[in-house]
Write a structure and sequence with these properties.
Blueprint lengths: L11 E3 L6 E4 L10 E5 L5 H13 L23 E11 L11 H18 L3 E11 L5 H17 L3 E9 L5 E11 L14 E5 L4 H10 L12 H4 L5 H9 L5 E4 L4 H12 L2 E5 L7 E2 L6 E2 L2 H6 L6 E5 L8 E2 L2 E10 L4 E4 L5 E3 L12
Parallel strand pairs: 5-6, 10-16
Antiparallel strand pairs: 1-2, 2-3, 4-7, 5-7, 8-13, 8-15, 9-13, 10-15, 11-12, 14-15, 16-17
Helix pairs in contact: 1-3, 2-3, 2-6
This protein binds magnesium ion.
Amino acid sequence: MTKVPRAAPKTDVILNFISDVFIWNEPTNFGPRRPIAYHGFALPLPEKALISGVRRRVQPKPAVPSGIGDDCAVLRIPENHEMLVTTDFSLEGIHFRRDWHPAESVGHRCLARGLSDIAAMGGNPVAAFLSLALPPKLSQRWLDRFFDGLLKLAAEFNVTLAGGDTSQSPTAVLADIVVVGSVPKGNAVLRSGARPGDRIYVSGALGGSAAALDLLYSKRRKTLNTGLYPSLFFPTPQVKLGKILRQQSLATSMIDTSDGFSTDLAHICEESGVGARVAESSVPRAKIGPAARLRLVDLRFALHGGEDYQLLFTASSRQTVPPKIAGVDITEIGVITKRRDILLTHANLSQSKLKPLGWEHFGKY
Ligand SMILES: [Mg+2]
């Protein structure tokens, strides 16, 4: 087997989570690009082992008759269902830092972002696809732990990792996750269904993730105990809740709070062509910290902090929405209006505009 230099000019390496690597020629006028060489060791052996290791760890399931190891995955969508597809970047320095987020957390959050989008449509997650670009100096241990986090969450939600791609990046870990789900035909809960008079609800509590991240940004903490700040390190996508809201036809519109409540509500209002009034005192603020010193997060984190992965939805005022669904607290926080602005009503009943100031990740600091 001939060894081909990795940085050979005008070549690139394509790997579809199979153990073989092809070095491709550039496309020419004479037809599609064709492999000019083949060798099995273009990637470091540990990474090769990792991919076959990942393949072994993926549980087969009927919805994915063929996953890792072929040119494409084959997915089976139930009859009379439509497919949901979402894609999300997890970029080192933008969405996580290796000195702050343990590898398991990075893997978990990577998949949680996609699952949360499926939840926001009321869908059933089916399969995930992961594209990874890894710096040459990344340790095998880090990668193993990344997959521990990702595959644990995948098992919890019965999602199969059905394929992906790996490549090298200069210095940062870059991951892109695609999650595919299904939903009965015509039943996906869209952002565009909110109507004037509908009540606005949010699940769980808001701001926990951003407030914990602020402790790190502000350098008040060098690292955090992951167990004490689950919303930052191991958020739970609200798949079950989303499904119930769809099955019971409760939600007229829905979105997950990934960008920050103010920004996500603005998305619903924009797509639905409506406005909103939100009662500041009703916004459920997360409690963070050690059990003995739990404290409510600042309102700004609850209003604008992102990555809580809760569900923000609207329901007709004729519907009774229970205060708890699938074990998750549901809080009514406002009403949809015909007037197309978003106002926050303060405790003294004065009102101010709620600007979409969603969390801008790490770029802000
Ligand atoms: Mg989303």
